[in-house]
């Protein structure tokens, strides 16, 4: 059954399980994701697609995608008709990209952009982002293979109903040449608080990863700053390799990073237990007492709590809570979690910082 | 009755009332102090006093000072025989100067240096500091006249028993020419958190004060940094004016500073109540949760609590508690407040920071 997103307040409150649950190697690998880029034969690439043809394509894809019966309930959201808060929510849930759903201050949204996602949010399909279709599958912890299985299953169901642009020589054709071939990008989100504290070690790891053709970037924040010590590792090259090869590459390097992060954590604990205890305890204190809390600072304090939890220095909350909070402190969620603010204009940043502080005090207060 | 300082642990724990009590204008003026510089006829100034003569002078002053019966119980401490912790305690209580009681890392203590103080610590007499005698009287809040009355009473009792260096033309002779005449310095300790937040306003006040011949300096910290926003205002010129004139000068400018500080507090509250609430609340959070706390940082957070208390934004403690804590977080007190550490060598700074954090958590925890 397909249905619109009914109630933004409830949507903001309940998160997909793949976000809040802790999966394999969950103390380092937060989530895994696979996306497949596909284009529909007979339509120009999105970069050359007129607004009319984009709407036409989206209109013809909607019944196909909603008819796939991917889960008991799926949601189709036309971006142009979505409220500013809903656009932010979808982005903060990793269901759509900034490109697909820009906020008003960035650039006007374009017609014919949409997303379909399953009720549990483990699968989403963006329509007319950089490619006609971007199939995404997400799962908790280190589980790239599971994500690949899900993404391929969705992809095959779609391919059974329409023709993708494909040649025997190149494989799947995509708007950007870096995606040609499998159209696959596999990525994992890592939490690396210890490596972030010892930047020389972090830089070693990142250099090694990029030598094997993987890209590493901070997940939040601009440039090299990674608020909250969250990083994304993903493959770069898709042409000339099979999907399995690509997933195998990332599956080799990630366990090495996991081991390295864990060994630095142990070393920090041994060398400066008192300093870590102080750091974790202060962050908890600030989160429980601040009355105004910007996102970047919140992520930094929450990163200290996660590290404290891993090392047995903090026990007033669970990893599931921290996973949820990581998403819900973002501005769309903070606004939608307030009564009667879901459909209004975006709040100003002072007001958001105040509400974020109140949210954190409430969620993190010891029970 | 004269007695030695019996138990450093108890001494560190109980403070003189003039420190912990809140006096007139106690939300801005923490304490008032008057000191009189005096020298004994027939002995060279301290700068030219041999160690033997210093010991001789101190030996002859001890019975005079302890015989004054300034209070039911007085304490005489010979600095050379005092433990490193006791020297720090006396300095942190403002009973002696750094010059009289240097710590081992600064320079060796010299023979013939001593201090007499009353049990309630409102009066102290340093022996062989810059002058043979420095009579100090201290009282809570804005009460320079009361301090002057006390200091003069002590001074007159001493003068009844020995001859001070004095000429009709210059008045009392002192080692440094800036003290010649009355030998009086009057000073007040001010807490100026609002003016410290608005530095342009603070600089205006300080410039005005120095034009009227008063000196302003930060009480803690080096150079222009005033940890905890505590400042001392004192008179500079002593020659050619009466004691009453000197006290009148400071008594004119201080109420103006008090009014100015209060008006900036009100303006801050009106302009940015939310920001102040956040600042106060976070400082309380950090003080209740930190596991390692350097003195400078502690003073900054405590200053925020004081400001919160003045403005009705913090109510989990009293001004008396904050007055006590201001003195007791210093390193000598932190060490002496521990069991069995009073007579040992000075603790290292990591250990002190850890103990300071524990002390603050305990004292400030809501009851």
Q: Mind explaining what this structure looks like?
A:
The structure is a homodimer of 367-residue chains. Chain A is built from twelve helices and ten strands. The radius of gyration of chain A is 21 Å and the shape is globular. In chain A, helix 8 crosses helix 9 and helix 8 packs across helix 12. Chain A is α+β, with helices and mostly antiparallel strands. The longest helix of chain A is centred in the C-terminal third of the chain and has 47 residues. Chains A and B meet through helix 8 and helix 12 of A and helix 8 and helix 12 of B.
Entry summary:
2 copies of one chain form a homodimer. Chain A has helices at residues 8-13, 17-20, 51-66, 84-92, 144-159, 193-197, 199-211, 243-289, 295-310, 319-328, 331-336, 349-364, and strands at 29-38, 74-78, 114-118, 123-127, 133-140, 166-167, 171-172, 184-191, 214-218, 230-235.
């Amino acid at each position: 059954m397909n249905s619109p997103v009914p109630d933004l307040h409830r949507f903001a409150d309940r998160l997909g399980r793949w976000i809040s649950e802790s999966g394999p190697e969950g103390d380092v690998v937060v989530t895994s994701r696979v996306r497949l880029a596909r284009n529909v034969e007979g339509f120009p690439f999105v970069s050359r697609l007129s607004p009319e043809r984009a709407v036409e394509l989206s209109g013809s894809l909607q019944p196909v995608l909603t008819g796939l019966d991917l889960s008991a309930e799926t949601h189709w959201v036309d971006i142009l008709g979505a409220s500013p808060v809903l656009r932010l929510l979808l982005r903060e849930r990793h269901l759509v990209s900034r490109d697909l759903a820009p906020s008003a201050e960035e650039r006007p949204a374009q017609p014919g952009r949409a997303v379909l996602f399953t009720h549990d949010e483990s699968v989403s399909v963006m329509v007319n982002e950089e490619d006609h279709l971007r199939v995404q599958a997400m799962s908790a912890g280190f589980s790239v293979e599971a994500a690949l299985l899900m993404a391929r299953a969705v992809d095959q169901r779609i391919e059974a109903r329409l023709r993708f642009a494909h040649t025997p020589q190149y494989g799947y054709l995509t708007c950007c040449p870096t995606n040609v071939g499998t159209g696959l990008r596999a990525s994992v989100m890592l939490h690396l608080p210890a490596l972030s504290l010892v930047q020389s070690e972090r830089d070693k790891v990142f250099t090694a990863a990029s030598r094997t053709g993987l890209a590493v970037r901070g997940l939040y924040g601009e440039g090299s700053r990674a608020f909250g010590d969250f990083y994304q590792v993903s493959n770069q090259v898709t042409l000339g390799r099979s999907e399995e090869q690509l997933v195998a590459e990332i599956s080799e390097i990630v366990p090495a990073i996991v081991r390295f992060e864990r060994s630095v954590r142990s070393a920090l604990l041994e060398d400066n237990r008192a300093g870590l205890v102080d750091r974790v305890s202060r962050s908890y204190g600030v989160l429980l007492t601040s009355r105004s809390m910007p996102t970047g600072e919140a992520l930094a304090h929450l990163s200290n709590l996660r590290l404290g939890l891993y090392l047995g220095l903090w026990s007033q909350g669970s990893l599931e809570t921290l996973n949820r909070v990581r998403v819900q402190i973002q501005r769309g969620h903070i606004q939608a979690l307030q009564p009667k603010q879901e459909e209004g204009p975006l709040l100003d940043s002072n007001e958001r910082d105040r509400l974020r502080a109140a949210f954190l005090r409430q969620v993190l207060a010891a029970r």
